[in-house]
Design the sequence.
């Protein structure tokens, strides 16, 4: 038998081959350059552009508050003069004004006068102004008892509705005291003048609220939240049901919604034009990750009210220091707090429901977050839990159902390797669908290990660098993740190219997102924590992208017919061309003998193209193997074998270089939709949370927190933010990773070698001074990070150089994680012209005839201090039944909460100077030893530090520019005196 030689020069082997770049350009023209195809240039450009388009506005929103309208437009629309409000802030922050300072009295007098002026200007004769000089409160927190005399200012704006005492009134709170080392511009000056602005707004006839509103300016928040506790015992507090607390824990920027009591009240915040915040911050308070507190816990816990905690929160290095001043805040920050407060309070005051009556309205934990600082979403945690469980169970069902239909229709190519053939031709065709399964998870693991490893390296070498260079840390870690991921996937793609690389990346990404969502659901159910809400949207996006990737396979022919499909789409119907499958063309083999009856039906492997041989399995470049045994040939893609483009053969239908031949049948545009599903929403929500967490923890090292924890959290969010890039990274060109390699190298060297502090980001250290009022011996204490503290003292402070200063540093600091250096510094002069032994007096004696039938005995202690209105009593053993008497008889002491019978520490605060306190305590009668202890009287006024606190003045004067001082405790100077009775 003699076979007719083929008339065409092109064989089926040539038709199987994937075109190279040069062949594409030569034979297929410009159609191969379509920007919609999954090619390196469009993939690199689009994914990088999306990330930049998201990061830039996120960073702007995160750091820069919105600008206010013109003052004239505010006057016309709201009747508010923002410039006047700003000038009020200047009056409040002229001096340090803690509760225990004379400047505090001046601020109080100014605020009372300012409120009366506002009310008079608006012609409101119904609003009440109450200057509280009556409430004295005795309460206990932990093992400490506190006696406090209120100096609060209360303003009641009467509502027009019929809700008085029935539906409940609204409370807006801010505190007007500062700490002893800060003017208090944002803690809490901006909040105070915001309250003044709100009083101005709601006392105008056109803006009278439906509910009555109480505006509380409390005094004593910085010392155990005393002012808010005192308000709880005021008669006017009983009708309040909704509250907005205004605070400051930073020195500028945007005001964020710290926390809320429930989803229902959080909806009022949705009215703000520029909402900002995440429920993750509230969860951090709830789980104890944030140790500081605000008045919020008094209104929520003690009064059972429902409300919001709105606060400034960055940067923390100026918090409680002299730089918490108007120089480091702005009218933009003031406007942001005022606008969000006004929107929230307006909604609260207009609400006519009975939702917030105690015991009536239902209360559900809220999950909330902003979108680009303009939109605000609020959910109930039970709804997010239900949604999480539905996604965890139903979504995998749809994915497996899709896989089932793909398998039934023989189109599930992912695990297909050698489908059968219905033709008499070779029965097997290698599809290599499983190729690329492991490479995404290997890339994830190695990239994550690299990011964590570098983070720990920085934490080991230069742990405090995050304090001033958190942006550099983000850039360094993100650059490293992209470099490592790209390198691994690109090498794998070069060595073993596969069309399944993108879908396997999506599969692993969706699996990780499912695990994160499972952790989120567990936290929602077991811990009542909804701050991981971003994992819900993360998994939704990855699941949809995975379903879309699976749907792509429906466009392919069944795997059992893939040979026929390739044959019919790649080969003309010409018989001569078909015969080239079983007999070579004379044109192809000009040097060989003419075929005879003894010639093999299959062509010799040596003539099937360069590098081909009989029986070879698919090589690393995505070869297609035909044949059931080792005697069958393997056909590879080779640019020399690229067929010419004829009419009816479209460039868009061809596979990428060296990838499986069947991939030319996949849709070429679905990657665009997958990109839009995977990147924008997950990155927006995750990056917002990452920025909030990163900024919150970056400067907590000065407070004693471990820098390692901060770096681990940065690594975690770096990985989460960049994971959506995984399915596309193998298509990136080398230009971006090469550029990022330079960025990574430069930032890593900077982070390892740079000094971590600067004038703009100073290291915070904590000051206190103790003096023995009996002997006059004094000790100056400075607390801070061990690595820098001793050098700050011994190298910069002249008093530490003097003979006998005896600088001693150890880890006995009252602040965990910090060290303390103590030395005999410059003595204080807090009571000018009076020797220290007369600064305070204490007298303790048994009260005669006070023994009752139970055998208890009573000890009366009289305490007084000059130029101070704060002292402490520390007993050597626990006492019970503490009572404190106001010698003037003006105030009535009210016990607040439950008082236990075992305390050894009593704090005393008076609204009057040098008046003193009379304290009665009881102890068991079978104790025969005298009751002993000591008093510690406090002086906190640093406005005349050069004369009265020379040690503090010296530290401020001689500390380097990269350090700043804050207060360690309630008093800057603590005078100690022993007693016994």
Sequence:
């Amino acid at each position: 038998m003699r076979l007719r030689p083929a008339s065409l020069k092109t064989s089926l082997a040539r038709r199987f081959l994937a075109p190279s770049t040069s062949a594409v350009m030569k034979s297929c023209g410009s159609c191969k350059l379509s920007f919609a195809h999954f090619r390196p240039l469009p993939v690199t450009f689009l994914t990088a552009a999306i990330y930049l388009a998201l990061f830039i506005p996120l960073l702007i929103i995160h750091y820069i508050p919105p600008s206010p309208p013109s003052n004239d437009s505010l006057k016309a629309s709201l009747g508010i003069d923002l410039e006047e409000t700003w000038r009020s802030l200047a009056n409040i922050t002229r001096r340090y004004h803690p509760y225990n300072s004379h400047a505090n009295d001046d601020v109080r007098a100014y605020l009372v006068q300012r409120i009366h002026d506002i009310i008079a200007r608006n012609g409101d004769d119904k609003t009440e102004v109450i200057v509280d000089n009556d409430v004295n409160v005795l309460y206990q927190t932990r093992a400490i008892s506190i006696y406090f005399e209120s100096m609060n200012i209360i303003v009641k704006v009467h509502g027009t509705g019929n809700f008085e005492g029935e539906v409940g009134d609204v409370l807006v709170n801010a505190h007007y005291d500062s700490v002893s080392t800060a003017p208090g511009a944002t803690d809490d000056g901006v909040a105070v003048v915001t309250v003044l602005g709100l009083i101005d707004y709601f006392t105008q006839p056109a803006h009278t609220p439906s509910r009555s509103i109480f505006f509380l300016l409390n005094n004593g928040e910085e010392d155990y939240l005393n002012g808010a506790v005192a308000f709880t015992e005021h008669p006017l507090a009983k009708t309040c049901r909704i509250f907005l607390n205004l605070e400051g824990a930073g020195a500028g920027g945007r005001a964020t919604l710290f926390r809320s009591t429930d989803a229902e009240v959080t909806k009022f915040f949705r009215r703000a034009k520029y909402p900002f915040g995440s429920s993750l911050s509230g969860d951090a308070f709830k789980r104890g990750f944030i140790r500081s507190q605000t008045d919020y816990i008094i209104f929520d816990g003690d009064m059972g009210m429902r409300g919001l905690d709105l606060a400034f929160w960055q940067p923390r290095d100026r918090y409680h220091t002299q730089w918490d001043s108007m120089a480091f805040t702005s009218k933009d920050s003031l406007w942001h707090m005022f606008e969000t407060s006004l929107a929230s309070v307006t909604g609260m005051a207009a609400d006519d429901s009975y939702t917030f009556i105690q015991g009536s309205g239902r209360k559900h934990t809220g999950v909330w977050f902003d979108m680009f600082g303009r939109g605000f979403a609020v959910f109930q945690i039970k709804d997010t839990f239900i949604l999480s469980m539905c996604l965890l169970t139903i979504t995998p069902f749809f994915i497996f159902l899709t896989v089932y239909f793909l398998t039934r229709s023989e189109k599930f190519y992912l695990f297909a390797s050698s489908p059968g053939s219905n033709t008499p031709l070779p029965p097997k065709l290698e599809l290599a669908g499983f190729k690329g399964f492991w490479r995404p998870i290997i890339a994830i693991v190695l990239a994550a290990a690299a990011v964590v490893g570098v983070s720990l390296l920085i934490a080991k070498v230069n742990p405090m660098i995050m304090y001033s260079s958190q942006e550099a840390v983000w850039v360094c870690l993100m650059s490293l993740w992209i470099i490592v991921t790209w390198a691994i996937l690109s090498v794998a793609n070069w060595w073993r190219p596969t069309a399944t690389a993108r879908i396997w990346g999506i599969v692993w990404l969706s699996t990780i997102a499912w695990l994160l969502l499972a952790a989120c659901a567990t936290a929602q159910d077991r811990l009542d924590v909804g701050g991981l809400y971003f994992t819900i949207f993360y998994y939704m996006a990855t699941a949809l992208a995975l379903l879309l990737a699976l749907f792509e396979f429906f466009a392919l022919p069944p795997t059992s017919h893939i040979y026929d499909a390739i044959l019919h789409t790649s080969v003309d119907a010409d018989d001569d061309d078909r015969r080239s499958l079983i007999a070579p063309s004379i044109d192809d083999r000009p040097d060989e003998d003419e075929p005879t009856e003894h010639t093999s039906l299959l062509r010799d492997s040596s003539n099937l193209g360069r590098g081909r041989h009989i029986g070879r399995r698919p090589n690393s470049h995505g070869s297609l193997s035909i044949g059931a045994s080792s005697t069958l040939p393997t056909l590879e893609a080779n640019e020399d074998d690229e067929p010419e483009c004829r009419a009816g053969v479209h460039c868009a239908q061809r596979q990428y270089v060296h990838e499986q031949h069947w991939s030319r049948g996949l849709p070429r545009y679905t990657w665009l939709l997958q990109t839009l599903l995977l990147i924008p929403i997950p990155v927006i929500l995750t990056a917002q949370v990452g920025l909030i967490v990163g900024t919150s923890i970056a400067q907590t090292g000065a407070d004693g927190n471990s820098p390692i924890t901060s770096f681990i959290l940065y690594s975690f969010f770096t990985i989460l933010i960049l994971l959506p890039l995984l399915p596309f990274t193998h298509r990136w060109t080398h230009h971006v990773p090469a550029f990022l390699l330079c960025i990574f190298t430069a930032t890593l060297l900077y982070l390892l070698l740079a000094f971590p502090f600067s004038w703009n980001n100073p290291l915070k250290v904590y000051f206190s001074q103790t003096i023995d009022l009996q002997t006059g011996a004094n000790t100056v204490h400075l607390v801070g990070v061990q690595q820098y503290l001793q050098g700050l003292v011994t190298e910069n402070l002249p008093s530490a150089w003097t003979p006998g200063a005896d600088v001693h540093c150890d880890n006995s600091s009252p602040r965990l994680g910090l060290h303390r250096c103590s030395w005999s510094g410059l003595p204080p002069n807090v009571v000018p012209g009076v020797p220290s032994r007369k600064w305070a007096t204490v007298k303790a004696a048994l009260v005669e005839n006070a023994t009752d039938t139970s055998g208890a005995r009573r000890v009366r202690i009289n305490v007084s201090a000059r130029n101070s209105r704060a002292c402490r009593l520390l007993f050597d053993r626990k006492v019970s039944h503490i009572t404190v008497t106001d010698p003037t008889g003006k105030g009535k002491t009210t016990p607040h909460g439950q008082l236990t019978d075992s305390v050894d520490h009593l704090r005393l605060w008076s609204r009057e100077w040098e008046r003193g306190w009379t304290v009665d305590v009881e102890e068991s009668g079978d104790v025969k030893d005298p009751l002993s202890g000591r008093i510690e009287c406090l002086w906190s006024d640093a406005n005349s530090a050069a004369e009265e606190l020379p040690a503090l003045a010296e530290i401020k004067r001689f500390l380097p520019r990269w350090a700043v001082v804050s207060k360690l405790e309630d008093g800057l100077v603590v005078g100690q005196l022993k007693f016994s009775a």
Observations:
- The chain is about 35% helix and 15% strand.
- The longest helix spans residues 381-408.
- The mean pLDDT is 85.
- The CA atoms of residues 417 and 431 lie 5 Å apart.
